[in-house]
Write a structure and sequence with these properties.
heterotrimer, A: alpha+beta, 4-stranded antiparallel beta sheet, 12 helices, 23% strand, B: alpha+beta, 5-stranded mixed beta sheet
Chain lengths: 301, 178, 788
């Protein structure tokens, strides 16, 4: 299990990195944290001819507050840094809640936010979090930059909208509107494993109204999933079922059922059959909605 | 015919057509300068170039944790890092754990011996290197936290029971911290 | 006892904890080449061609060998364990080959050996070897392996039958006719991997000047490896030294021999006149190291109206894998262990071992015993349910009573000897386990309360025996050196069981020295070359008693020397703290070192016939195995929605005779339980219909982590074995044996409110599998209702 040979470049700036990318194009692969790429290379499942190592570019690792209230995170920010960032905790509780579920601390010490997103593993937590948070991604090549919404960034099984000469440089996780609550749920065989199914829930309530949940109206609902499709996926029909409704156990159960049975068509593998995944989706959705509601109500206090 | 070019004895590394990189790494306080092929895994560098064979290799895909070392003070899987990436970084391996004056073991190692926290001992160096920063950051961990901290290291002999006890023993002896 | 029975801290730990212990991969020799293997991508097929030309062109490649290049050296491996002398048996020995020649029979079977300047280059070259294979249909499913249409794995046989054995006692059919209740079920137990964290490895170094071969091998049996290699390579045994250094976990598969790599590396080292290293990687380990556990049983139990066992009948299929070098050990263990702690007057057991296109099956911790315990315990549970009997009570009624020992089961065990239990007190263990798990309180209060709250709580309670400490023999040499320190050498290898300490304890007990003063050397054939290896939970019994005998003999010599030196009668001497003195006058003593020098004089004359030194070599071979036993009880909580299972409590009562070191013993049990939990709920090798393994990585083959292990509540009884002087029985495998049976029972119990009548008849389980079992049960019930 030794990786195949490659040419190695360690640019010091993102300009240098982008030049290298444009020079080598599809031959090259970006080495971020390497926690998914290097195992794949050790199994010789990935065999890039050229590796462009971004670890020497200090400018790509940061967590700062966005003027509009969200968080801007450099793509080379270590997952552990995101996990322990108080800014992330305060501005993006969903991302904060998801981080401990990403593998183990030894992996998060090295793995990066951008690396995980660009890798687009359908079983990974972070793409689904970004989809739920309506995050925006800044992509650069050596001539230009462009911004993509999370939903346009992830294009399929280990696939993204990144062109061969493009690099993911920054992720902006916007703030949620007032009276929002979020929840993260996954079911894995062992802690730290890729989940068999996972769910992110975001609920936003209309302002005003009374104290009890029956008095509330759901203004916005987002339900995203991982490990149940070829990429992160949103349960569109379940979401629309929730909109404009008053939160209630029965409603949540119906949404969970709709997500599991109508929105999603999960695949089967040795760890979970499609039917079991549907079951997990339903269970996790119910739990996530209940917790998100609780948080949203707390936000009203 | 089965005998190939290896009939001639190669001296040093064999060129595979990829440029070697000169690196300087500080390992356990000692500076090591080598020219390495970019694909050389840090685990292999430590074991075979730096001759620090206490770092063990169990899976080479980042799951078992046997190869865990400290890079700039934080636990990482040395099988998931290329040696070239350790250039100008500081590493600590199990050989770098210091025993206090007059003792033969670091207090954490001492606690493992006391509580029988190892059997074959193959996974042990990786476990120690995972625990060092964990105990630094969590000087008084609860049992569940200890178990979670250990969950990225596989041990096939002990069932973890006595490893957890060893950590508790260490915490109670030292009053916490690493 | 000063040392025996004490929780002595281990002598080997300092080296292991500081990273100084030498494992095979830590051996580095100048000019060493590295090996990698071209392995079959197919489970079954004919080799059309192997083209090594491109690989040989790669810079840094020293050699590539195929089966053809081996010439006369190519031959199937030896049959490691011949079949025991059972009357009704068939056995077809088909052993593994060093490199596949005409056919490949499992994925990962080696086809060519590449040697290069680094493992990196060797792996590059492996990719350049072009292998053309004409694939054949694979035999994967046990039940289809013996179909007439099934493809033949070994073309010279009429079928894929590896072995067939029947053993019986009494008259089962007659007993069945008397029965009030008969329960019959099909049980399935699937494959797992032992997955020691250290993979296998070999370093072979032929020194042409010295005409000497040194081999470092991660084996549990260095001496047989040395003897076999010498024979194969045409060398004298004294020209071969095999060292099993520190081994990173064995668990059985490292006793298998000869692995192809073990045969090839030494030979190639002689060919190339260079040291060679092969370190198995984790991916290879899933194919190249032996596995265990595939069996399907059709079993039946007949009971009288009081729930007493009248007889058991079992027919089973055993998955041997592609070759059967380990003979019948695993299925015979299953056959023998099924009887368990119970009086079973009539038994009829018949099995067929079948070849499949999967990696070879040899013992893995438990070595077939799990299956027997699983089948028997499940049968008792189902019978108890049918008879509305308490599950503790049905066991209680059938336990062999303490006064019945030695208890003859009237069948033949894996050691070729009649299966006779030497000693034990089974009821005492059962009652203690019930107490520890709060059995009555669980049934009367905890479980009903949980059920009222909608929580699924269940209990598992399982008894088991473990046949341990079998022959043939082991030996130990003990020497008191002129420093007064003791050197103890034995042939058994050690893989983490603490032999450096427990053997030292046994010696120190006799020799009046500290445990830390005894330096133990194991697994180096230059130091000791008689013995077989570490397997079948026999180290403490067999080598332990050899230690005891050797130490007693050295003690005798010490006292003889001291008696002369101190001019006192031997019976007046005290031997302690490294010196001997006359009772009552400790101030005029003579040290062990001085006595050792006296016993090995440089000048002068010695008594006629005197042997030099304070040294003795002793061998111990038990007439039959010692039988350990125990009870495990666990409480689980099952999440009805996700089918996740949490073990809430776990109690172990264990009796392995005299305990040498309780710390080490507890560690053995805990580790065994962890592997049992892995086996029950996490670890399953998934093969598809073409024989491809779908989860050959630690990402998909799931070993339990620290978060998956419960705390254990443990208690020991000591019913000494009458068979050996120390009174010990083995304990290495015990922890792993009953776990799956207890887990299945507990989960089944927990699920009853959700799925009344649900039965769990298979292992391993998983949340996904539990979900399926529940769905199937629901469907069956719905169908049943439809019919009514």
């Amino acid at each position: 299990m030794k990786p195949p040979a490659f040419d190695y470049h360690a640019p010091r700036t993102d300009e240098e990195a982008l030049d290298l990318l444009s020079r080598f194009g599809g031959e090259a692969k970006i080495l971020a944290g390497g926690q998914s790429l290097i195992p794949a290379m050790n199994f010789r499942l990935a065999r890039p001819a050229v590796l462009i190592d971004l670890n020497g570019i200090g400018d790509l690792a940061y967590v700062v507050e966005e003027a509009s209230g969200g968080v801007r995170i450099g793509s080379m920010t270590r997952q552990r840094t995101v996990e322990t960032s108080s800014l992330v905790r305060d501005c993006s509780p969903l991302l904060h809640a998801a981080m401990p579920w990403v593998a183990h601390v030894q992996i998060r010490n090295r793995g990066t936010l951008g690396g995980s997103l660009a890798h687009a593993d359908p079983a990974a937590e972070l793409p689904a979090v970004m989809l739920a948070m309506r995050a925006r991604f800044r992509l650069e090549n050596n001539e230009d930059e462009r911004w993509l919404e999370a939903r346009d960034f992830f294009t399929g099984f280990f696939a993204t909208a990144l062109a061969e000469d493009e690099m993911l440089c920054e992720i902006v996780v916007p703030c949620l509107p007032s009276y929002s609550g979020t929840a993260f749920r996954e079911f894995a065989r062992r802690h730290g494993d890729y989940a068999l199914a996972g769910c992110c829930a975001v609920l936003t309530l209309e302002e005003g109204q009374g104290d009890s949940s029956a008095d509330q109206t759901i203004k916005d609902a987002r339900l995203t999933y991982f490990s149940v499709a070829d990429g992160p996926v949103e349960a569109v029909q379940a979401q629309s079922l929730l909109l404009g409704q008053s939160p209630a156990e029965g409603l949540f159960a119906e949404a969970a059922y709709t997500a599991a049975q109508t929105d999603l068509d999960p695949p089967g593998d040795i760890h979970a059959s499609p039917a079991f995944r549907r079951q997990l989706v339903e269970v996790l959705t119910g739990q996530a909605l209940a917790e998100a509601l609780k948080k949203a109500l707390e936000a009203k206090d | 015919m089965t005998v190939g070019r290896g009939e001639r004895l190669y001296c040093g590394a064999v060129e595979t057509g990829r440029a070697q990189k000169e690196i300087i790494v500080e390992v356990n306080g000692r500076e090591i300068r080598r020219s390495v092929e970019p694909r050389l895994l840090l685990s292999d560098f430590l074991r075979h170039e730096a001759d620090l064979t206490g770092t063990h290799v169990g899976c080479e895909h980042g799951v078992c944790g046997a190869c865990t070392v400290l890079m700039d003070g934080e636990a990482v899987r040395s099988c998931l890092i290329f040696a070239v990436q350790a250039n100008r970084r500081s590493l600590t391996t199990v050989e770098g754990l210091q025993a206090p004056e007059g003792r033969d073991l670091h207090p954490l190692q001492e606690a493992f011996r006391e509580k029988h926290g190892l059997q074959c001992g193959f996974c042990t160096p990786g476990i120690l290197m995972t625990l060092i920063p964990f105990l630094r950051d969590n000087p008084r961990p609860r049992k569940e936290q200890i178990r979670e901290a250990l969950s990225g290291n596989l041990c096939r002999c002990t069932g973890y029971v006595k490893i957890v006890e060893a950590v508790q023993e260490y915490v109670s002896r030292t009053g916490g911290g690493a | 006892m000063k040392h025996i029975g004490k929780p002595v801290r281990r002598n080997e730990d300092a080296r292991l904890l500081t990273g100084k212990a030498v494992f095979v991969d830590d051996v580095h020799l100048p000019a060493m080449l590295h090996a990698a293997f071209v392995r079959s991508d197919y489970a079954h097929g004919r080799i059309v061609s192997v083209d090594t030309r491109q690989a040989l062109e790669l810079p840094g490649v020293a050699a590539v060998y195929t089966a053809e290049d081996l010439g006369d050296y190519w031959r199937p491996g030896p049959l490691l364990v011949p079949p025991p002398p059972v009357e009704e048996k068939t056995f077809h020995a088909r052993t593994q080959v060093p490199l596949a020649r005409d056919k490949v029979r499992h994925v990962g079977e080696p086809i060519a050996l590449v040697l290069a300047e680094s493992r990196y280059i060797a792996e590059d070259a492996v990719e350049l070897v072009e292998v053309e294979i004409d694939p054949l249909d694979a035999v994967v499913d046990l039940e289809q392996a013996l179909d007439e249409q099934a493809p033949l794995i070994h073309d010279d046989l009429d079928s894929n039958l590896s072995a067939e054995v029947r053993q019986s006692k009494g008259d089962y059919q007659g007993a069945r006719r008397q029965a009030a209740v008969v329960v019959r079920r099909r049980f399935e137990y699937d494959r797992g991997a032992s997955a020691a964290i250290e993979n296998r490895g070999i370093v072979a170094s032929w020194d042409g000047r010295d005409q000497h071969l040194t081999v470092w091998d991660s084996t549990q049996a260095p001496i047989p490896i040395r003897n076999g290699l010498a024979e194969m390579l045409g060398l004298s045994e004294s020209q071969v030294r095999v060292i099993a250094p520190f081994i990173g976990g064995g668990f059985g598969p490292k006793i298998m021999m000869f692995y192809p790599e073990e045969v090839l590396l030494p030979w190639a080292s002689m060919q190339l006149q260079r040291p060679l290293k092969w370190i198995e990687d984790r991916e290879e380990n899933f194919y190249a190291t032996t596995q265990e556990r595939g069996q399907i049983h059709w079993a039946e139990i007949a009971l009288d109206a009081e729930g007493r066992i009248l007889g058991v009948r079992d027919d089973f299929l055993h998955d041997a894998g592609a070759y059967d070098p380990y003979g019948l050990t695993v299925p015979i263990n299953t056959q023998c262990t099924l009887l368990g702690c119970y009086q079973v007057p009539n038994y009829d057991s018949h099995f067929k071992a079948v070849f499949t296109n999967k990696p070879i099956v040899t013992p893995y911790r438990g070595a077939g015993r799990q299956h027997g315990v699983f089948v028997m315990e499940r049968l008792l549970d189902l019978a108890a349910r049918e008879m509305d009997l308490d599950r503790a009570e049905i066991r209680r009624r059938n336990l062999i009573p303490p006064e019945a020992f030695p208890y003859d089961n009237e069948i033949i065990f894996q050691d070729f000897r009649p299966l006779v239990y030497d000693s034990g007190n089974y009821p005492r263990c059962l009652e203690r386990a019930l107490e520890m798990i709060d059995y009555d309180d669980f049934l009367s209060r905890q479980q009903p309360k949980a059920r009222r709250e909608g929580r699924l709580l269940g209990l598992g309670l399982v008894t088991y025996v473990e046949g341990t400490g079998i022959g043939p023999y082991e030996g130990v040499r003990i020497t008191v050196e002129s420093s007064g320190k003791v050197n103890l050498v034995t042939g058994v290898g050690t893989q983490g069981q603490g032999h450096y300490t427990s053997f030292a304890q046994v010696a120190a007990e006799q020799l009046g020295v500290g445990v830390e003063d005894v330096r133990v050397v194991t697994g180096d054939t230059r130091e000791f070359h008689w013995g077989t290896g570490t397997f079948a939970s026999r180290g403490a019994v067999v080598a332990g008693n050899a230690c005891h005998n050797a130490a007693k003999d050295v003690r005798r010599k010490i006292l003889e020397q001291a008696s002369e030196a101190l001019e006192a009668a031997q019976e007046d001497l005290v031997l302690e703290e490294g010196k001997v003195y006359v009772k009552g006058s400790p101030e005029s003593s003579v040290s062990l070192g001085e006595l050792a020098v006296r016993a090995n004089p440089l000048r002068g004359a010695v008594r006629h016939g005197a042997e030099p030194g304070l040294e003795s070599t002793s061998y111990y071979g038990p007439e039959q195995g010692a039988t350990a036993n125990g009870v495990h009880a666990m409480i689980v909580e099952v999440d009805a929605e996700t089918c996740q299972v949490k073990i809430v409590r776990y109690a172990v009562v264990h009796d392995c005779g005299r305990v040498l070191n309780p710390l080490i013993l507890d560690g053995q049990i805990e580790g065994g339980v962890a592997q049992g939990i892995g086996n029950a709920f996490y670890e399953q090798l998934h093969f598809d219909q073409t024989g491809q393994l779908l989860n050959a990585s630690f990402m998909d083959f799931l070993l339990p982590t620290a978060l998956d292990m419960p705390d254990l509540d443990m208690d020991h009884f000591e019913t000494p074995s009458p068979l050996n002087a120390l009174g010990v029985k083995g304990a290495g495998e015990a922890g792993a044996i009953p776990v799956a049976a207890a887990f299945a029972q507990a989960v089944e119990d927990a699920l009853q409110p959700l799925a009344p009548g649900l039965e769990i008849l298979e292992i391993p389980l998983s949340p996904n599998r539990l979900f399926e079992i529940l769905s199937e049960h629901r469907d069956r019930r719905d169908d049943g209702r439809g019919d009514a």
